[in-house]
Amino acid sequence: MNKFNDDFMMGAATAAHQVEGNNVNSDFWAMEQVPYSMYKEPSLEAVDHYNKFKEDIQLLADAGLNTYRFSIEWARIEPTKGNFDKTEIDHYREVLEYCYQKNVTPIVTLHHFSSPKWLIIEGGWESESTAEYFENYTRYVVSELGNLIPYICTINEANMGKQIAKIMKRMTESNGNNQSQKVESGDVQVGLNVDMKEKMENYYRALGEAFGMDPRNIQTFHNPRTDNGERIIMECHERARSVIKELKPEIKVGITLSLYDHQALPGGEKFVEIEQQEDFFDYLPYLKEDDFLGVQNYSRKIHGPDGYVKADEHTRLTKMNYEYYPEALGNVIRFVSQHWDKPIIVTESGLSTDHDEERIEFIERALTGVHECIEEGISVIGYTYWSLLDNFEWQLGYEQTFGLIAVDRSTQTRHPKESLFHLGNIKKSGLKG
């Protein structure tokens, strides 16, 4: 029996906009509501985690898990520029305190994709001023809640904008060759819809009206990012880290990156090197003073002499069209550890499926890889499955089912899946192998 140490953090993750509901001051709320929206459906009440967080954390703890990664929603804390909402900070204080009541370690993410609408109007994630705004927001949160937060992820998947930019470039090149515009959802580790050119044009016009600005200047976190935008993101991280260490030096600070297991067929090595440089190595210089790195992995990508090799009809796929390949996680941890000698937390790993037995198999195989990495001497200190709840998967809406807990959204009733208890049993008793 392969057992994790008692102090190993094992649990599940969520993101505020995807689970809380009624995040009305955020950019995503605006994008979901406009005519011709690219979102399959609006988030609305989501799964009402804002009001039902105690029930959800209780379910996690009852299963035997000891860690909950969640995000604080900037658009709630600072609904208008410079105006902080004490009621909302008190809400997150209550969430943190309840974690401790249930012996659950909280891992807090300060920014998980969604931003205040006002930030986008001010220039968004390509604006120099955003670093100052993010620093101010961080200072307020840590001043109010820092004594309750042991781990902070400043920004979730800081490299996501670059990954989306690569997809958009590939789509543009395909259009120039009169090829299909459709990009498979498995091409990026986020719920993204980039189909239908005419609809997108109407959507951007509607967005311009909703934000009161030229739609070409709307820069959300999920926009394809320029090199300057990449620098701004990492300046946000560095300034947030400095504030955290100034106010509460005992808090462990890191960032999370979306990382595929890039594998090369003969002749594909150069493409793997490019992907690893863009997804990982470009960010390392900014992370030298971090305490840990959050690794987020869902699958692998195979590269041949002509580049990325798409899955064929024999490839086992998840509901998100990722290749079903749980061993990717262990491979990514090993790759990261060759260049990163500090602790690693697996901040996201999971799959969307309608068959919970597939989720159980995925968890078992992924955690076998994690345990092997630990036995090899790699400092992996935690694992949070994505996601605790079936939730709002961005542009893909509620159809995707990543959760350990199903939710009947007509009544907001929770239905724990067997996979929740399986993950808890691994924490308590170890892996089967």
From TrEMBL:
<dbReference type="Pfam" id="PF00232">
    <property type="entry name" value="Glyco_hydro_1"/>
</dbReference>
<protein>
    <submittedName>
        <fullName>Beta-glucosidase</fullName>
    </submittedName>
</protein>
<dbReference type="GO" id="GO:0008422">
    <property type="term" value="F:beta-glucosidase activity"/>
</dbReference>
<comment type="similarity">
    <text>Belongs to the glycosyl hydrolase 1 family.</text>
</comment>
<keyword id="KW-0378">Hydrolase</keyword>
<dbReference type="GO" id="GO:0005829">
    <property type="term" value="C:cytosol"/>
</dbReference>
<dbReference type="GO" id="GO:0016052">
    <property type="term" value="P:carbohydrate catabolic process"/>
</dbReference>
<dbReference type="InterPro" id="IPR017853">
    <property type="entry name" value="GH"/>
</dbReference>
<dbReference type="InterPro" id="IPR001360">
    <property type="entry name" value="Glyco_hydro_1"/>
</dbReference>
<keyword id="KW-0326">Glycosidase</keyword>
